[in-house]
Structures are given as structure tokens and as C-alpha cells.
Amino acid sequence: MFPFELLSSEASAANLRQQVRWREGLQCPHYRSESVIKHGSYREYQRYLCKDCDRTFNDKTGTIFAHAKIGLDKLLFAFYSFLRFNTSIRQLDAELDVSYRSLHRRVEQFARTLDVPAISLVGPSEIDEFYVSAGKKGRERDRESRSRGLSKLGQGTYEGVQATGVHTR
After folding, report:
1. pLDDT at 157
2. Over the stretch 93-137, which tens digit does the pLDDT of each residue have?
3. Using one digit for the tens of pLDDT, what is the confidence trace for 47-93?
4. CB neighbours of 140 closer than 8 A, spacing ≥ 6?
5. Is residue 129 classed as helix, strand or coil in its secondary structure?
6. Separation of alpha carbons 90 and 103, rounded Å
7. Where would I find the H helices in 57-99?
8. What's the pTM?
9. Residue 7 in contact with residue 13, Cβ under 8 Å?
10. What DSSP character marks residue 95?
11. How many C-beta neighbours within 10 Å does residue 71 have?
12. How many CB atoms lie within 10 A of CB 160?
């Protein structure tokens, strides 16, 4: 069971992020130096100063959470729901009250950072797509068909779902 109380506020999510990021010791993300001191705070995030390069950073610097306008608690909840419950980004943007575009960009960026192995197809391969009809296409309807260019058979789908298959011979 996931401890959702850790995502109850931005401060608790920032505390979780700090514990996870610096579990092996605090170091400068720019210079990789361990001679770092606390240097104030910005909102819920602790700021640090590297004594070697004189640059400041916080817990989000150099991560996918840097420069995010969406709160860390909302992002962590979105990533968890997207991966664990296969929640759509449209549903998440309605629940979290953030824009679809921003959330989609962050989820895409998160997925790229996961070390997912690429599929390698060796030798001759085949790919095919087909549509599973979910509507009343080609059957009698209660009303006239909408004029969308899909009124003739074989010209697309009304409410079909596309499925794609790939295999190596």
C-alpha cells in the first residue's frame, strides 16, 4: 500500500524528495563536490551552497522536477496513478486541476528517464494494424449518420479501437 499521506502537501512531498535524493550523502549536482552547506530555503525546498564552485542548488536541481510549475505532490501522485492504475492523462488533468499539456510533457519526461529497454527486432519483422469496431458501423441506426467522411464502409471507424501487432518471423 502506498503511503498517500506523504503526498498530502507540497512540504511533505518535498521532504520525501529530499530523503530519497540525498540518501547516499549530499553533493553538488554541478561540481560533484561534497563540501556543501545549507544556504536558506525557497518555499518548501532547502537551498544549498557548494563551497567549491560557489553555485546554489536545491533538492530539485538537475532532476525532472526542476522548473516544474506543477507542485511536487501533484506530480508524484500523477506518476504513481499513471503507472500503477493506468490512469489517463486527461483524467489526471481534470482531477489535479492542471493543464493537459504541462502534465503530458512531465509524464513523457518521466517515462524517458525510466530505464526502459528498447525493443530490438532482428531479421524480417511484420507489423499490422486493425480496428475493433465498438459502434454500429454498417448497421441500422436510430438517426442519420454524421457527415464526417466516415459514412462509407472501409473508410475508417466510428468508435473503433486501434490495435497494433508486431512480431519477428
Report:
1. 47
2. 999 999 999 999 998 888 888 866 666 777 787 777 766 665 555
3. 999 999 999 999 889 888 888 888 889 998 998 888 888 889 999 99
4. none
5. strand
6. 9
7. 72-84, 89-96
8. 0.59
9. yes
10. H
11. 19
12. 15
pLDDT in tens, 133-156: 655 555 565 666 566 655 555 545
| Res. 6 pLDDT band, cuts 50 70 90 | confident
How many whole angstroms separate alpha carbon 37 and alpha carbon 21? Answer: 16
For residue 66, list its beta bridge partners.
Answer: none
Give every CB contact of residue 152 below 8 A, 6+ residues apart in sequence.
none
Q: How many CA atoms lie within 13 A of 42 on its CB side?
A: 12
Rounded CA-CA distance 3/87 in Å is 18
3-state secondary structure 16-51: HHHHHHCCCCCCCCCCCCCCEEEEEEECCEEEEEEC
SS3 assignment, position 79: helix
Radius of gyration of the chain from Cα atoms?
Answer: 24
Task: Give 135's contacts (C-beta < 8 A, 6+ positions apart).
Answer: 157, 158, 159, 160
Q: How far is Cα 153 from Cα 162, in angstroms, rounded to an integer?
A: 16
Contact 5, 76 (CB under 8 A): no
C-alpha 60/C-alpha 65 separation (Å) is 6
- Dmax of the chain from CA atoms? 76
